[in-house]
Specification:
It is built from eight helices and no strands. It is mainly alpha-helical. The radius of gyration is 18 Å and the shape is globular.
């Protein structure tokens, strides 16, 4: 997984990569898989947040810890254990993370149902703002000839800082810190969207059309963009709902 997730696989080429038919097909496969992941997450979130027995099972039992920490555990374990994953293994990783994050998003559905600081209109607005921002940023990353690799390194450092700040604020419970984290999250994942899109272009050319590697790269590419979208959505939603999580 480390070969694809937040890695710099190749430098910026001199050719106009945006007109390559093979590249368009590769990127379309990634976007399609990402879109299917978002649909599955939305369905799972609705079921978890609106069907009482499922809500009780997910949020009222130790299963909630699997939902909370499962995606991070899967990504960490796979990055250390699976040095050369197969298309099937990388696909299992992708759909497992999508399913668990979908379950965790059920919190927002539940919060909207009970009127806990957010409503469905706000969720809808946040989604469309996220979709518009993501589309524009990904298009920029796809078309720009500027090398974003150095920018990506800075963003990864910022992401680590954001995670640390989030952990600290779990104990501080500062509304101001929460607001700062949300703003920082929007900026970081906006940048990562453009960076990852360009990185995936470079990955396509570095792989040279090898089918097995391309299949794995499609799964991990969809995972990268999916994670950027979901995190961007949640930070935007937190800002639009006044930070009441």
């Amino acid at each position: 997984m480390s070969n694809y997730q937040y890695s710099q696989n190749a430098g910026v080429g001199s050719a106009d990569m945006s007109v390559d038919a093979g590249l368009r097909s590769f990127m379309l496969g990634i976007y399609n898989k990402m879109a299917l992941g978002l649909v599955l997450s939305a369905v799972i979130a609705y079921v978890v947040g609106s069907v009482a027995p499922v809500t009780a099972l997910v949020f009222g039992t130790p299963l909630k810890f699997v939902v909370m920490f499962g995606p991070i555990g899967i990504l960490l374990v796979s990055s250390f254990v699976m040095r050369n994953p197969s298309p099937m293994a990388s696909g299992i990783i992708y759909w497992s993370v999508v399913s668990l994050l979908g379950a965790s998003l059920g919190y927002w559905v539940l919060a909207a149902r009970v009127g806990a600081g957010v409503d469905f209109l706000t969720i809808g607005k946040a989604f469309f703002v996220t979709a518009a921002a993501f589309g524009g940023l990904s298009l920029f990353g796809y078309t720009t000839k500027k090398d974003l690799s150095g920018f990506g390194t800075f963003l990864i450092m910022g992401l680590i800082g954001l995670i640390i700040a989030g952990v600290v604020n779990m104990f501080m419970k500062s509304s101001m810190m929460e607001f700062i984290i949300s703003v920082g999250g929007v900026l970081i994942f906006s940048g990562l969207t453009a960076y990852d899109t360009q990185r995936l272009k470079h990955t396509y050319y570095a792989l040279g059309g090898e089918s097995r590697s391309m299949a794995v790269a499609t799964n991990y590419g969809a995972l990268s963009l999916y994670l950027n979208f979901i995190n961007l959505f949640q930070f935007i939603l937190a800002l639009m709902s006044g930070g009441d999580d």
